[in-house]
Structure prediction request, 214 residues.
Amino acid sequence: MILINLLPHREAARKRRRDAFFISLGASAFAGGVIATVIFGWYAAQISTQQSRNMLLQNEIKHLEGQIKDIENLQTEIAALRARQQAVEDLQADRNLPVHLLNELVKQLPDGVYLTSMKQENQVVTITGMAQSNERVSELLRNLSGKSPWIARPDLGEITAASVQLGPRDSRRVSAFTMKVKLLRASEVAKAAGAASGASAPASAASASSAARS
Prediction:
């Protein structure tokens, strides 16, 4: 017996293909949604982890900034203490400066020169005196320029002609002068002495080497 299908098989096939397409489309959309959800969740977890790290870093940075500020305050306090210590040491050393000044003036004062007054402001000493001639003043200036370790930068302010009454009928023509000098502290004298010894060491070594070669 022969069976004949009188139903519209082409429409049924198209319907089956359309249903399969929609099913595959829905499955793809579902799979895409699942994948997108997984990716979104992974990125969200990464962002949350990075935010936690950033928060930790910010807290550590704030902690370090506080420590740096404490260190800066400590360094400022140390610098202030060192300045105070240096000031105290300078004051203790400055107590002997008048003694050194008088000793050096006695050593460097040439014959025919005597002093009438001295005035000190900080490390600058103003000296006034009388000399037999201008040459005596120049000699004093040369002596104070290079022969005294405690006196530096002598500056002749003025020199004028004057007269000194030695007796009722005896007067002498003299040169009145004013001079300023810088009185060095003990630390400055020690530094200058160290620099001089350091400079003399290479010179002595060079002379010894040249003597050995000769």
